[in-house]
Design goal:
The protein is built from 15 helices and 18 strands. The chain is of the alpha/beta class.
Length: 536
């Protein structure tokens, strides 16, 4: 069983960490009911240790009706029974830590489930009650209150559904996402106190950090005015009072040496960096890199801008190619449009998976060579493609709320293949989402024995990143390179070259070839859509 060196598990470990995202429902099914669970994760901890990751980030595992994949939380202090128990979660955190792997949990401050005790009490208490002050309840507009209180747009891209739902007693309540996810009123002190208590609850159970979902959304303009494009400040995105909330959270985290990573989608790099000031969040996701096309110039610009926006506040950058919301990397890079945009997702997009896989291998080495922390979504290390889910099996509300035009996010959430010869590719019981034909070809057991597999590439790269000097957090310097080629140095003579040009490129002078994403050509050159790590 793999064990980590102590160097990466001390001090500011998060500045250089490789963090593996676990979408529990689709990771591994320990009890055979078709839904991934904590027992499945515990059984696969040796796999994750051998892979070489520093931490696990778990998507919400709390009690939930699953109206939005667990992001509709009914109780933060209980594990959903489909996943296991609180005692199992505590064991998982402890067992992972024994292997040198930390744990991050997910907190969703913008909203809770409509089955949360607070919301059920608010509905029962009626208009004007103190219970309703924890949310955004308002009378409607129009002669009989039949119109929503304002015209805010849904945060589900492509959705035409309103963000207000009317109760039989006449009051409307706000939900930027689904009606099953009522927004909390962060101007209320009880909301702030409850979330600080929840943070302490999980830090006391040994978690090392918290990922903050939709971190720029919780605070709202108290007047709830109509939305006007371009008006500053925005009525519900990136409001200044958020920073006081996160400063309070940081004080809690500092008591436990815990860390935060924020999901912050903001085009303004200066405002983005405000979340990373020393007394707020430690890190935030880098979505410009995730959505960037496979283009050398665009990638270099994204890397430069990311490093520049983090530098003034001294925060490390984070790099991610894929997550539970976006198209799988091998599929995206095999399409004509290699960028990612929620608004352009459609059914039946042609994909060259061989091309996409070659580029995804190179992108893995690129992201792992960049300064800062890296997030790896489960199944990326297996090279899984985006699955097309039959329409009658799609569960993601993005599909239904778009009127059936958006395929939704289920295609990147298909349960993992573990054993090529086992039923359901070794996932467990009949999976909650169907595995496509040929899924077993990506099984981890076969890939572990194949020196040319995606899994072997990730294992070798993660081992080198951990043991070779120069990788992780630290400086980056660009090298002169041909058009379409990215070449840069890290500390201690570490070099990375990625060839996105139309032909092979000559490698810079080096003393050692550490790893390549594909074989060099017969003249020792780096082929198209291939990456290499070198030692000068």
């Amino acid at each position: 069983m793999g064990q980590h060196s102590p160097a990466r598990t001390q001090g500011e470990w998060w500045r250089s960490a490789v963090i593996y995202q676990v979408y529990v429902r689709s990771f591994a099914d320990g009890d055979g009911d078709g839904t991934g669970d904590l027992a499945g994760v515990r059984a696969r901890l040796p796999y994750l240790a051998e892979l070489g990751v520093d931490a696990l980030w778990f998507n919400p595992w709390y009690l939930s009706p699953m109206a939005d994949g667990g992001y509709d939380v009914a109780d933060y202090r209980a594990i959903d029974p489909s996943f296991g128990t609180l005692a199992e979660a505590e064991k998982l955190v402890a067992e992972a830590r024994e292997l040198g792997i930390r744990t991050l949990v997910d907190i969703v401050p913008n909203h809770v489930s409509d089955q949360h005790a607070w919301f059920r009490a608010a509905v029962a208490a009626g208009p004007g009650s103190p219970e309703r002050e924890l949310f955004h309840f308002r009378p409607g507009r129009g002669e009989h209150g039949e119109l929503p209180p304002n015209d805010w747009p849904s945060q589900f891209v492509g959705s035409t559904e309103p963000v207000w739902t009317r109760l039989p007693d006449g009051d409307w309540y706000l939900h930027l996402f689904t009606p099953e996810q009522p927004d909390l009123n962060w101007a209320h002190p009880a909301v702030r106190q409850e979330h600080e208590d929840v943070l302490r609850f999980w830090f006391e159970r040994g978690v090392a950090g918290v990922r903050i979902d939709s971190a720029a959304l919780p605070a709202k303009d108290p007047d709830l005015p109509d939305f006007v494009e371009g008006r500053d400040p925005h009525p519900f995105v990136d409001r200044d009072d958020l920073h006081d909330i996160y400063r309070s959270w940081r004080a809690v985290a500092d008591d436990y040496d815990g860390i935060f990573v924020g999901e912050v989608w903001l085009p303004d790099t200066e405002r983005f960096a405000r979340y990373l000031r020393p007394d707020e969040l430690h890190t935030a996701f880098n979505f410009s890199f995730l959505s960037c096309p496979w283009d050398a110039g665009r990638l270099r610009t994204s890397i430069n801008e990311t490093l520049a926006e983090h530098a003034p506040v001294g925060a490390p950058a984070t790099w991610v190619l894929c997550n539970h919301d976006v198209t799988r990397t091998v599929t995206r890079y095999g399409r004509e449009d290699t960028g990612f945009d929620f608004a352009t997702k459609v059914f039946g997009t042609p994909t060259d998976l061989a091309l996409g896989t070659r580029r995804a291998r190179a992108a893995a080495l690129l992201s792992l060579a960049l300064p800062g922390a890296v997030y790896v979504y489960q199944g990326e290390e297996l090279g899984l493609p985006e699955a097309e889910i039959p329409r009658d099996r799609i569960q993601d509300p993005m599909y239904s709320r778009s009127g059936g035009t958006d395929p939704g996010r289920d295609g990147c959430r298909v349960p993992l293949p573990w054993n090529a010869d086992a039923p359901h590719a070794g996932f467990g019981g009949d999976p909650w989402l169907p595995q496509p034909a040929g899924w077993s070809a990506y099984a981890a057991d076969d890939q572990a024995a194949d020196p040319g597999s995606m899994l072997t590439l990730y294992r070798e790269a993660l081992n080198l990143r951990r043991t070779e000097p120069g990788f992780g957090d630290g400086p980056l310097s660009w090298l002169p390179a041909a058009d379409g080629v990215l070449a840069f140095t890290r500390a201690d003579g570490a070099l990375c070259v990625v060839n996105l040009s139309a032909g092979p490129t000559t490698l810079p002078a080096h003393s050692q070839l550490l790893i390549t994403s594909g074989p060099l050509d017969t003249e020792g050159r780096l082929p198209q859509d291939t990456a290499a790590w070198l030692r000068a």
